[in-house]
Structures are given as C-alpha cells and as structure tokens.
Amino acid sequence: MSLIHALVAQGSTILAEHQAGKRDFSQATQTILSKIPPNNSKLTYVWEQYLFHYISEGGFTYLVMADDSAGRRMPFTFLGELQRKFLSSPSASTSSTSLPPHALQSTLGPIISQLVYTYNTSPPTDDISRAQSELAQVKDIMVQNVEQILSRGERIELLVDKTDTMASQATAFRRGARTVRRQMWWKNKRVLGLGILVALVILWMIMAQFCGAALRCGAK
C-alpha cells in the first residue's frame, strides 16, 4: 500500500479525509497542517519511513501520506488530481468561508477514497509522466524532516503511538517475567525440600548404625 492517508484542509481544519491503513496518523497530520505556511507552496515532510506530501494553494491544503517506496512523483500526481476534482466540485464554491471540521466528509470523502484506491492499485501512467515533467520545473518543492519543525512537546505527542505500543509490549514482558519467577521459586522450594529430606534420611541412617533403627541410644 503506497498511499495511506489523504485529506483536504482549509488552513489547519480538515474538511474531508480518507485513511487506507489501520494505524492512526491523525495526530501527525494535524501537527503538520499546523506548520504549513499560508502562502502557496509544495513540500514533502519526512517522518520515520513515511512521507507527507502536500500542495497548499488558494487557502486549501491537499495532503497525502505515503510510504517512502512511493517516491514523490506518484503522490504529487495524486494531489494534483485531488485538487482538480475538489475545485471542479460544488463543494469548492461553498468553501469560501471558514467551515467546521469534516464539513465536506460526506461529499468529498468518497472522492478521496476512490482516488486513493485507484492510485494504490493502478495509477494512471500518463498523468504520472506529465507530473514528472512538471515537478522537474518546480523550484519551490522542498523536503524537510518533521523533527526540524517540531518543538519538544510536539515530538513527545507524535511519539505517543510508539510509546503506547512499547508500553503494551513491556506489560506483556513483565507478566511473562513474573510467571517465570514464580515457576523458578516453586522449583527452588522443591529442590530445597528434597535436599532437607535427603539430609534427614542420611542422618537417620548414621544414627541407626549406633542406636538401632528405633534410635534408642540410651537403652541398655
């Protein structure tokens, strides 16, 4: 799966989106949206093995999150087509004023979903070839690492998903460690008990040689 999460936003407000993967990247995308400058721009942010590509134009941001294996040509072709479809839809005429979050989800969400599916299964080669020549001429497309634009607190927020996963793994490890310790404790107790029993038997055998089996050493 190349394209994972795509959306259309007005400023930092997400108007419609579609997520193809199971992992939730909404916090990361929201953080990146808040860092996008208001001027028209095209940019790629790098985070872990993922790339966040976006086109910001006319007050709207078209963003797609993709695997690094997808490169940049195909995701930017996708964004260009998403932008054209949005601007040609009736939703664009109603978006001149500020809208609440996900105000266009019912109308624009299915369009984003269909585009993501198309580009993940059989992306149009002609559009990609055209985008390749366009990207070669664009000078304002840059690549930045997400870590460079985040404050310490925001880095911590983006690591919440990772921390939760590690915490669950640590909990499972602790449970397993407790079980092993409990098993070893009982094993040591059994060995100790057996050692005491053997020592008592040996002591009885030594004393029985001098005092008899009944251990009546004082009897005449």
TrEMBL record:
This is Synaptobrevin homolog YKT6. Belongs to the synaptobrevin family. GO terms for cellular component: cytoplasm; endomembrane system; membrane. The keyword Metal-binding does not apply. Its main location: membrane. Keywords: Coiled coil, Membrane, Protein transport, Transmembrane, Transmembrane helix, Transport. It is a single-pass type IV membrane protein. Residues 127-187 form the V-SNARE coiled-coil homology domain. The chain crosses the membrane at residues 191-215. PROSITE patterns: LONGIN, V_SNARE. InterPro entries: Longin-like_dom_sf, Longin_dom, Synaptobrevin-like, Synaptobrevin-like_transport, V_SNARE_CC. Coiled coil: none annotated. Residues 3-112 form the Longin domain. SMART domains: Longin. The keyword Cell cycle does not apply. It comes from Russula ochroleuca. One of its GO terms (biological process) is protein transport. Pfam families: Longin, Synaptobrevin. It comes from the Eukaryota. It is found in: Endomembrane system.
